[in-house]
Amino acid sequence: MNVHMVAIAGDGIGEEVMGVTTRILGRVSSVTVESAPAGYGHWQRTGSTIDEDLIDRVRQADGVLFGCTATPSPPPETYRSPILRLRRVLGLSVNIRHCRSAPGGPMDVVMLRDCSEGLYSESEHLVPDGATADYRVTREATARLARAASAIARRRKGEVTVVHKANVLRQSDGLFRQVALETVEAEGLAWNEALADAAGYHLVAEPGRYDVMMMTSQVGDILSDVGAAVAGGLGLVPSLSLGDGPPLAEPIHGSAPDIAGKGIADPTAMLLSAVMLLEHLGLTGPSTAIRGAVHAHLAARVPSSPPAGTDEVERDIMDRITL
């Protein structure tokens, strides 16, 4: 199987974590990886965060590896997020985030959020006395998310937790709750539900309470960071976005400009994102090899020791790979 991926490192620590990932991919697989620039730095150089010819190449790829991108504050009127653009043009609506502790830890939960609707649809408007943002929920997107959550739950513990704020947002989150529960039930799986604020509490107080969770875009963005804190940090949590076009793998962490170039960026989340992409493409051999090496590396970490440098992490994982 000839697999072609496009790797977009982006900004900040993106170059470092993507470099580790592509080198390890080259060690365990015959995947062809094409590197391309995008992000804030590219915008500063060219006036565009992502080139149109790159969009065309991405559409033809089997998968996309995306590092991280910086966003200026406040963003100029002409600035457009490259990751939001990619999600939109590739029709990616289901974002899967796996918050898992190092072996023996308390957290192992998969969170799914819709990244095409909710508050992250880039639909905002200035009004005379302020600003408004559209909060969109549709039956189609919610059912698609629920089916994806059900497929994952079927391989795990067989239960989906629907997270919402239907007690306040009775029409929008009320529809999300209704369609989600109906769809999960139609898939033949058990379900429960949780209010978003209560779910945040229980993720910290009872890390093993949930297994597969589904939620709207902003809630998922927030709760996955909470889960990451319990699991051991943003540097451990991968994600994969699915939809009509090629799947896109990216860590949930940001560009971390404060540590960029210092050789201390943790590539774990980027590596595990690549593992999720390999699994989705049916490349179980390489995905199993990388995951096993990463988990062995994490299990060997001494919590009280200073964080390992990027090169040290790469060498240790390379040494632990069994083909």
Note the main attributes of this structure.
alpha/beta; Isopropylmalate Dehydrogenase; 323 residues; two-stranded antiparallel ribbon
Give the secondary structure arrangement, pairings included.
Elements: E1 4-10, H1 14-28, E2 32-36, H2 40-46, H3 52-60, E3 63-68, H4 82-89, E4 92-100, E5 108-114, E6 124-127, E7 130-133, H5 139-154, E8 159-164, H6 172-186, E9 190-195, H7 196-205, E10 212-215, H8 217-231, E11 238-243, E12 248-251, H9 268-280, H10 284-300, H11 310-320
Parallel strand pairs: 1-2, 1-3, 3-12, 5-10, 8-9, 8-10
Antiparallel strand pairs: 4-5, 4-11, 6-7, 11-12
Short summary:
This protein is α/β, with parallel strands linked by helices.
Protein model, in words:
The protein is an alpha/beta fold. It has a domain of 171 residues: 3-Layer(aba) Sandwich (Isopropylmalate Dehydrogenase). It has eleven helices and twelve strands. The strands form two sheets. Strands 2-1-3-12-11-4-5-10-8-9 form a ten-stranded mixed beta sheet, with helices on both faces.
